[in-house]
Automatic annotation (TrEMBL):
<dbReference type="InterPro" id="IPR045570">
    <property type="entry name" value="Metalloprtase-TldD/E_cen_dom"/>
</dbReference>
<dbReference type="InterPro" id="IPR035068">
    <property type="entry name" value="TldD/PmbA_N"/>
</dbReference>
<dbReference type="InterPro" id="IPR036059">
    <property type="entry name" value="TldD/PmbA_sf"/>
</dbReference>
<dbReference type="GO" id="GO:0008237">
    <property type="term" value="F:metallopeptidase activity"/>
</dbReference>
<feature type="domain" description="Metalloprotease TldD/E central">
    <location>
        <begin position="122"/>
        <end position="224"/>
    </location>
</feature>
<dbReference type="InterPro" id="IPR002510">
    <property type="entry name" value="Metalloprtase-TldD/E_N"/>
</dbReference>
<dbReference type="Pfam" id="PF19290">
    <property type="entry name" value="PmbA_TldD_2nd"/>
</dbReference>
<feature type="domain" description="Metalloprotease TldD/E N-terminal">
    <location>
        <begin position="26"/>
        <end position="90"/>
    </location>
</feature>
<dbReference type="GO" id="GO:0006508">
    <property type="term" value="P:proteolysis"/>
</dbReference>
<dbReference type="Pfam" id="PF01523">
    <property type="entry name" value="PmbA_TldD_1st"/>
</dbReference>
<feature type="compositionally biased region" description="Basic and acidic residues">
    <location>
        <begin position="193"/>
        <end position="205"/>
    </location>
</feature>
<feature type="region of interest" description="Disordered">
    <location>
        <begin position="135"/>
        <end position="156"/>
    </location>
</feature>
<feature type="region of interest" description="Disordered">
    <location>
        <begin position="190"/>
        <end position="212"/>
    </location>
</feature>
<dbReference type="GO" id="GO:0005829">
    <property type="term" value="C:cytosol"/>
</dbReference>
<dbReference type="InterPro" id="IPR047657">
    <property type="entry name" value="PmbA"/>
</dbReference>
<protein>
    <submittedName>
        <fullName>TldD/PmbA family protein</fullName>
    </submittedName>
</protein>
<feature type="domain" description="Metalloprotease TldD/E C-terminal">
    <location>
        <begin position="231"/>
        <end position="447"/>
    </location>
</feature>
Length: 448
């Protein structure tokens, strides 16, 4: 596995070659990944996998024309051919008045923060196997569990480097550890499946594998013998594992790229009080050991913590260079890069602040409602905000969680839904996007 210095050197060499061949400007991004994982099923080793990959992407500019290309061949001959192809593509590309590198005076030039993203401790396959086995054993020990889809454990290591012809050159390393379990409860036509999964930058931050397995077993058993609900407009409470998707739709609609395409239901509402005043949605890209922490964005701008929603309003649009120029808005440090291509837009480590009441108190006055633990389908229109998804979970009867339900549809409009959001006080921070239990009144629910 290469280090960040080697990755940066490759990026700078590729940029220098493209400039010598006639590019007006260029940037290069390199990513290297290595991972290994172990799967256990019914107490026996199912698989051991290891993968490694390295790729570098080059973006060149010739006036207002640009092109991107990537390769996993790092020989000098491959770099020369890559640069030649990129320039040939750029010469025939259409002009884009918004394309370009981030201005030099906006590039991150400070000292790299210590985000502690890399766990250097060794984790041999034997240790991964033990974690997977413990998780599955705990899940299978839950009364009512009848079969297993398996337990898993994995470790990964990644290196990211970005360099530009305007002088930016930085990189960093990260690691990841994960444990999962998935089991089946019941038999025959009664069978139900559920799972639990946790990941962290450092292995020490993971729960005990037995906790993960036991939770997977409890979830599967709790879903046995589902019923349905009466159709109508009722309060819907979203479990934290699915409630984050609501915030995810809001973030997608706040993307400058979506706004520039006129593909956001928030257009025209950016100055309105859309949320209850107490709701705050925050972003912290500098969170130590955070799952999506990063010191700089995909164009070399410094990443900074901020409130994305506060005092009932969104802060504005999240932009990269292109969308900022198209919308005549400032760059916000939200550019995101993959292995190649132009930057997209993405936030880092987002969470909704906890509310003031417990989940039990949040549901206490609901005589008839729905507690959602699973969502299905893609019935979300980010242009209009119309929302309709399949769901399963539990009935809420007189303020208490009652029996399981399945084959339900929940529908509404995202603008109405975010106005009605009420969070509980049970926020946990371990995902890239975290929310507490949230309640939304007035949604349309249809049973089977």
């Amino acid at each position: 596995m290469i280090d960040s210095d080697t990755a940066l050197s490759r990026c700078e060499d590729l940029i220098a070659m493209a400039r010598r061949m006639g590019a007006d400007a260029a940037d290069a991004v390199m990513r290297a990944d290595a991972s290994e994982g172990v799967e256990i099923r019914l107490g026996k080793l199912e698989s051991v996998d290891r993968s490694e990959s390295e790729s570098i992407g080059l973006r060149v500019f010739m006036g207002q024309r640009s092109a991107s290309i990537h390769t996993s061949d790092f020989s000098p001959e491959a770099f020369e051919a890559l640069a030649e192809r990129a320039l040939a593509m750029a010469r025939i590309a259409p002009e884009d008045p918004y394309a370009g590198l981030a201005p030099q005076d906006r590039l991150f030039s400070g000292e790299m923060p210590d985000l502690d993203l890399f766990d250097a401790r060794e984790c041999p396959p034997e240790q991964l196997r033990e974690r997977a086995l413990e998780a599955e054993d705990a899940a299978r020990s839950v009364p009512g569990v009848t079969n297993s889809n398996g337990g898993g454990a994995s470790r990964s290591h990644s290196v990211v480097a970005l360099a530009t012809s305007t002088g930016f050159a930085r990189g960093y390393e990260g690691s990841g550890h994960a444990i999962s379990a998935s089991v089946v409860a019941g038999e025959g036509g009664r069978m139900q499946t559920d799972s639990h999964f946790r990941s962290a930058r450092h292995a020490a931050d993971l729960p005990d594998p037995t906790e993960i397995g036991a939770e997977a077993g409890r979830r599967a058993v709790a879903r046995l013998d589902p019923g349905t609900v009466r159709s109508g407009r009722i309060p819907v409470v979203f479990d934290p594992r699915v409630g984050g998707s609501l915030v995810g739709h809001i973030l997608s609609a706040m993307s400058g790229s979506a706004v520039a395409r006129k593909a956001s239901f928030l257009i025209g509402h950016e100055d309105e009080e859309l949320f209850a005043p107490a709701i705050r949605i925050l972003e912290d890209p500098l969170l130590v050991r955070g799952p999506r922490s990063r010191p700089f964005d995909g164009e070399g701008l410094e990443c900074t913590p901020r409130a994305l929603v506060e005092n009932g309003r969104i802060f504005g649009w999240m932009t990269n260079r292109a969308s900022a120029r198209q919308l005549d808005r400032p760059m916000t440090g939200h550019a995101a890069r993959g292995g190649g291509g132009a930057p997209g837009v993405s936030p880092s480590n987002v969470y909704m602040e906890a509310g003031a009441v417990s989940p039990a108190d949040l549901m206490a006055d609901i005589s008839e409602g729905l507690y959602v633990t699973h969502l299905f389908g893609q019935g979300v229109n980010l242009v209009t905000g119309d929302y309709s998804r399949g769901a399963s979970g539990f009935r809420i009867v007189n303020g208490e969680i009652a029996g399981p339900v399945a084959e339900i549809t929940v529908a509404g409009n995202l603008l109405d839904m975010i106005r009605a959001l009420v969070p509980a006080d049970d926020l946990e921070r371990f995902r890239a996007l975290d929310v507490p239990t949230v309640r939304v009144d007035g949604m349309t629910v249809a049973g089977s």
